[in-house]
Every structure is written in C-alpha cells, then in structure tokens.
Amino acid sequence: MPNKNYFDQQTDSAMSSKQHVPPTDIPELEELISRPTDAVISTMLHLSGDILVLGAGGKIGPSIARMAKRASDQAETARRIIAVSRFSDSASRKRLDAIGVDTIQADLLDTDQLAGLPDAENVLYLAGHKFGVTNNPSLTWAMNSYLPGTVMQRYRDSRVVAYSTGCVYGLSDLTHGGAVESDPLNPTDEYSMSCVGRERIIEYFSRVHNTPTSILRLNYAVEPRYGVLVDIAKMVLAEHPIDVTMGHCNVIWQGDANAMALCSLAHVSSPPFVVNLVGPELVTVRGIAESFAKLFDKQVRFVGTESPSCLLTNGQRCHEMFGYPQVPVQTVIQWTADWLLRGEPTHDKPTGFQVRDGQY
C-alpha cells in the first residue's frame, strides 16, 4: 500500500490542525513533544524495570526520556528513567534533572564508562553519528557499527530499542510508494553503510544472546526547532531558491515518533522486530515550500527537477502497530511558521535532506 500524497489532501489536514494550539516558547514546546499518549501510558503500566536512554543529550533523547518519565508517573509505576550522554548542553541535563530523570555524564565509546553504567531492564539506544562523516569517517563507523556491539553485549539481558534510519534502503522509486521493511538494504555511501553495519551487529548479538530488540528506521522527525520543515521554512523566509531534485520525503512529528518508540518496547523480539518509524504522508518539497510561502507572504523560486527516486519509506506496518500520528503535517508546518516568525530559537543544525550521495 503506497504512502498517501499529503498535498492532495491538504484540506482535511488543515481542518484537523484547528484542534491544535501552537507552542509559544521552549517550555510549552518541550511539554508538547513529551506529552505521553494513552498507548504509552498503557505500555509503561505493563512494562517492568527501569529505562536507560543512551545518547540522551541529542535532539531526540531529552524529550523521549521526559515522555517515559511522565508516562510512568501517570501509570503510577515506580521506575528510574536514566539518561546517559556526554551532555555538552548542560541546560538540557538540568531540565531532565528537574523533572526527576536521573542523568549520567559518560562517553559511551569508553568501555570502562559503559561497563560502569547501571543495569536496566529496558534500553533505548539513540547514539549515532551522521554529520561530519566526510571529514571523519572512522568516528562514524565507531559510533554506528562498533559501539552497538559493545552496548548489546553490556545489556544482553535487557530489552533494547535501537534507532536506525531509512537511509539504509538507499533511493527508492516513487512508484514503489516507499521502501518496506522486507525490501533489501541498498547502502550507497559510508554513512548508510555504517548504519547497515549497526543493524547487522545489533541483529547478531540479539540472536546470540536472545536479546529482545526492536530496530526503528526513523525518517524524518520534525518539530519547530529542527527538521526538514525548518530547513525549507528558513530558505523560504530568506528567499533562497529551493532545490527540488530530492522532491519527496517522509516526516513525522517528534512527539509521535517518541510515543511509537516507547510503545515498541512491547514488541521487541529476537531476531529484532524491525519497523519504519514514519508518517503516513508522502510529502513534496515543492508543496511544503509553497505552504510556507503563503504563511510568510513570500515568493518562492524553485531550481532543479523532481527526481523519480528519493529517500522514502512506507509506514504501513508502523501505523498498523501504533496507529496514525496524532499531529498532522499541516499542523507542524503552521507551528513551525509561527515559531520562526516570532523569532524563537532553533537548533541551527540542517538535516541535509537534499543530499543524494551521502556526503553529510
């Protein structure tokens, strides 16, 4: 079943977006991204043990740790939520400490520090390296292929949810409707090859130690501070031309991705349960840019021609397991436009979604 084309159904999404109020500042945004769904609360109610979040200082980690904490509290289930990172952003660590998440500063590549981390029945593995692969490929391979093996051995007796990426499929023909989980992997560059390495190593140790695991091929999470939508919105605001060669993509609201990831703890298996973590719509770069142009009252200029192949994944299995995302794309577009027009901060980390050769 191919993905829906979002911009053919803009009216319905726009109607549903009226039910959502845009966040006005960082505390409101972080509350929204970490707001647990009923399904997450139910998962936490029936799940035993503490939850350890490895790589918790990045773009995803703080909000998923906070959601796990909030859902556990609402389920009245006593457990520790432990967030581990180098925490180069001390403010992020302080915000987690303030809500009762236990934080540990550690370098996961240091085997002694990894060995010294607390045991936990549940592990969320978020660590990885993408940007800078061209200048430092060895670090990319160490983070994406070596480290997963050491983590899987250290936490062989845990349930493990490991993040991956839709890049492992390579470019997919638009007529195919996006890669499905059973499709062969087709890495074409060092980054995507290292990510296939991550999956293979995780699968190997899952089989060897019978470690129940899920692998989540995320593609792409968005919120008003970061993501494909922010990248396009900033270009429209600055009146820069929009390259539409990589003309289509998938996006999913970060809060929905967090909820689905936590719910996947109930579906871990050995060999690993693999699922594309993605929204239901096939969105167009041109359509996104035109939506922002209307909201910003800007003219938009396009360059290039839409390629018949893009980095696309099909989310049918995801939505059958976890339901459709609660926040539609049009809502996130409106929230992002409002956020940028009011001058609220962004992470200032472009996604590189236009890249077709893996040179991040």
UniProtKB/TrEMBL annotation:
Chain spans, region Disordered: 1-23
SUPFAM superfamilies: NAD(P)-binding Rossmann-fold domains
Gene3D superfamilies, per the entry: NAD(P)-binding Rossmann-like Domain
NAD-dependent epimerase/dehydratase domain mapped to chain residues: 51-219
Coiled-coil blocks: none
Signal peptide: none
One Pfam short name: Epimerase
Record field: compositional bias (Polar residues): 1-19
InterPro entries: Epimerase_deHydtase, Lipid_A_modif_metabolic_enz, NAD(P)-bd_dom_sf
Protein name, as recorded: NAD-dependent epimerase/dehydratase
